[in-house]
Amino acid sequence: MITLEEIAGRLKDKTDYSFTVNRMSWEPQKVDNYVLPSFAIKESSAKGAETKLKNKLSKVLAFIDLVKHKRFKTGCTVMPISVTNKDNLAIWQNEKGVSRAIDFMIEIGLISVESDKYQFGAYYEKDNKSKTYRYYKENEDKLKKYCEDHDIQMFIVKNKVYNMSELKKLHTGIDKSKVRFASRLKLIKPIELSRAEFEKQLTLCLYENYPALRFHIVKANEINEKYYKDYPEFRIRFQPNFTWSEDELYVSGIGIRATNSLTNLKKENRKEVLKEYGFILEKDINASVPRMTLSLNSGHWIDESQDMYELIYRVIEPTGLFTKEKREAIKKLHMRAYFDSGDKSVGHHTWLTMEQNGIDREDVCDKMSEFRNAIISAEGGKLYGSDIFYVESCVYLMTLYDLLSAGHKVWQVYDFFYSSG
């Protein structure tokens, strides 16, 4: 029979089972020769104009903070700016708001259009599209000086929290019991509701189906306001994320995971942040998803002295030699088997993404079926699908809260914690 090491070694696809939630993933491009546009902010004496301008610039400051660890420290950076990116929508509320903000940033000279062509996949959203722009650090400095001189503070993005009483207004066409964190949904939008209103009502359903959800969203806002007031890059975004069908007639998936603006900064690029904030300690929760699953099923936290991947292996081979190669194969295949719909389908789906020469399909299916059953057994008898990221976020959110409350300076990246001591 084929081994797990052989299956892992033959995988061709690069499917990411980490379920990140629509954070920025673009890589900056440096422009050496460019013409710096003039920086100009148009002031007006008309009634209400000053307040309106301050509000605009306050949100631009939030955007500047969002990209400060991605753009180059000097000169001109080419970057995509998407009207559908969740971070941008959190600042400007809707796509029209983001579009108007882009026009305003062009008007004042912070950015200019690099290409009018839309590029797809500029961020993690599979349906995302964006134009690319030139971003000018020199004019960023001028804008920040202007805001400082005029006492303009950065806009603070808050996680939305709805009142539970609004559940009484739930549309009769929505079946609350079907509103879950899952990737295989078909929640049809009632024609009377806008996309935004439907997402709001689905969020209210999630509050009811996951009683701790609203509490932890409120707790994320408390962390942001109390401990991250002066560190906006670490502020937690904890909101349901909705995936729509291409025709936008129904929601096909709902996910959630606590993130911040630096979450998807590659590990090799984190050194600069660690140095800047004095983070000298780090802690990676080993095998977070299997450990969290067994902890849930056991009713208590499973200490990291227990190697979860060896625990899975021992179900298959109680007395076999557990090598580094076996551990790496189990680690590589774990999320694929965990999140598949069943032990029969996981083999077929794995086979489709493998180099198939010289191996038997049924052999692969049998091995992956055995592997998934071993995962279920080792992790306590029940798997949780996408719900595990909801639970994981809640647990680590409260861990972060405890660390911050104890006086530590901490940056959390999913199941990874950095601290100043």
Tell me what the structure shows:
By secondary structure, this protein is α+β, with helices and mostly antiparallel strands. Helices cover 43% and strands 12% of the residues. It has 14 helices and 10 strands. The strands form 3 sheets. The protein has a 4-stranded antiparallel β-sheet. The longest helix is centred in the first third of the chain and has 19 residues. The chain is globular and about 80 Å long.
SSE diagram, text form:
Layout: H1 4-10, E1 29-31, H2 49-67, E2 76-81, H3 86-92, H4 95-108, E3 111-120, E4 129-136, H5 137-149, E5 187-188, H6 195-209, H7 213-226, E6 241-244, E7 250-255, H8 271-277, E8 281-284, H9 288-298, H10 308-316, H11 324-339, H12 343-352, H13 361-378, H14 387-405, E9 410-413, E10 416-419
Antiparallel strand pairs: 1-2, 2-4, 3-4, 5-7, 6-7, 8-10, 9-10
Helix pairs in contact: 1-11, 2-3, 2-5, 3-4, 7-14, 9-14, 10-11, 10-13, 12-13
Strand order of the largest sheet: 1-2-4-3
Main beta-sheet annotation: 4 strands, antiparallel
H/E series: HEHEHHEEHEHHEEHEHHHHHHEE
- Strand fraction band? 5-15%
Helix content: 40-55%
